[in-house]
Amino acid sequence: MLDIKWIRENPRALDAALKSRGAPPYAERVIELDEQRREQVQILQDMQARRNTVSREIGQALREKDAGRAEQLKSEVAEIKNAMSGIEDESRRIDETMDSLLASMPNLPMPDVPFGSDESGNREERRVGEKPGWNHAAREHFEIGEALGMMEFEAAARIAGSRFVILKGELARLERALGQFMLDLHTGEHGYTEVAPPLLVRDAAMFGTGQLPKFAEDSFRTTDDRWLVPTAEVPLTNLVREQILDHDELPLRYVALTPCFRSEAGSAGRDTRGMLRQHQFMKCELVSITDAAASLDEHERMTACAEEVLKRLGLHYRVMTLCTGDMGFGARKTYDIEVWLPGQDSYREISSCSVCGDFQARRMNARYRPKDEKGIRFVHTLNGSGVALGRALIAVVENYLNEDGSVTVPDVLRPYMGGREKIERA
Question: Collapsing DSSP states into helix, strand and coil, what is residue 49?
């Protein structure tokens, strides 16, 4: 959520930034509502002052035994109370309209974010590693997994419908190995604290990270009005909601390996085969809580932590800065890490690392006490995949495919696979 004071002082900058994100102009309407709210507050204050004055006059009239004057003043107090009730109702209506408008506005991009309307406007920052150099034909992950007898989509569809998969045997173990490897790396070397969070959250938690109200259709809601987490970003970031932290506590760095659940409401017809776009998937999520001064450096650090996963797996990838029209709702700047998939002959996103500024903190009321300053400030939040397990598994089986259809296990995963060097059909 954006700062209303900043909006009042920078209306043109707001609308220009929103235009770059494909959003309509909001400044005029926000400022109009803010002025109406200020007027209502002033009217209520004036009425309250008059009511207090009249109440004192009633006491004076009673002491002077002027019953007629006292009754007249009591009637005026009653009229003021009735008028105040109407003003308070109108004030609440204005507040609700203002809050709804602010909640629907996306975060503002940083100055160095490239302008663009879709992924074609994204900027490549670097490429790391080499594509596999083998001579045999590439195959897509679902072909490899089905040929191994360890990846079943039809059975999953009979149980749960489309966009689910069943992993069996060594591929199921490979997914588990990837998760354990990522957790060990991020906790042991990168300084993140492992968290096992709830997978069901309330509306307030989803609102805090920006999933509500705009993206309700993208998530699954339970019959008791909770939400299945679309990403562990939601519970991890909300660990600091409604808290005032000491500056010395920052930065906080959390990591969680959890199932994630998404309805994929807007993806009809996209990636319908295989594991690329599922209703349920595993992801290793990174979240950082910092102050304003450290947030940009933390963004680079978080991205490097996610990259290290792919480096150690020996996977070729590139890093992209997303353009204004392709960023997520709550982000000010996002790096997408795209891994090379030989079966698709293309790069596909495996991690997004975003810096959100104080956008989420305002929605969560998450603050800290600066060391050498008076007052309280909003924290800055960051989140990123460290990385998505399903897509990491896809990348491993496609990049480590052998000519005979077996899959070589990357060196770093072998300790988690009982020393196994190769996955073959039983």
Answer: helix
Of 139, 277, 348, 369, which is the active-site residue?
277
- The rounded distance, in Å, linking the Cα atoms of 119 and 206 is 26
Tens of pLDDT, residues 184-195: 999 999 999 999
Residue 158 Cα to chain centre, angstroms: 32
Residue intervals of the chain classified under CATH 1.10.287.40 are: 4-104
Provide CATH 3.30.930.10 ranges for the chain: 119-423
When mean pLDDT is compared across 75-84, 107-116, 195-204, 224-233, the lowest value belongs to 75-84
Query: Residue 76: which of 56, 104, 101, 94 has the closest Cα?
Result: 56
* 307 included as an active-site residue: no
- The pLDDT tens digits of the residues spanning 34-43 come to 999 999 989 9
176 is known as an active-site residue: no
The verdict on whether 349 is a catalytic residue reads yes
- The yes-or-no answer on residue 352 being catalytic is yes
List the catalytic residue out of 143, 233, 338, 349.
Answer: 349
Radius of gyration of the chain (CA): 28
Return the CATH fold of 119-423. Answer: BirA Bifunctional Protein; domain 2 (3.30.930)
Helix, strand or coil, per DSSP, at residue 351 = strand
pTM, whole model, 2 decimals?
0.91
Mean pLDDT value across residues 397-409: 97
Task: Tell me, yes or no, if 277 is annotated catalytic.
Answer: yes
pLDDT of residue 269: 67
Query: 213: cis peptide before it, omega within 30°?
Result: yes
Which of 262, 362, 363, 367 is catalytic? The answer is 262
CATH code of the domain occupying 4-104: 1.10.287.40
Structure tokens at 322: 């997303």
**Which residues does 253 contact at the CB level (< 8 Å), separation at least 6?**
190, 191, 192, 193, 286, 287, 288, 289
Q: State the Cα–Cα distance between residues 405 and 403, nearest whole angstrom.
A: 6
Contact by Cβ (8 Å): 236, 228: no
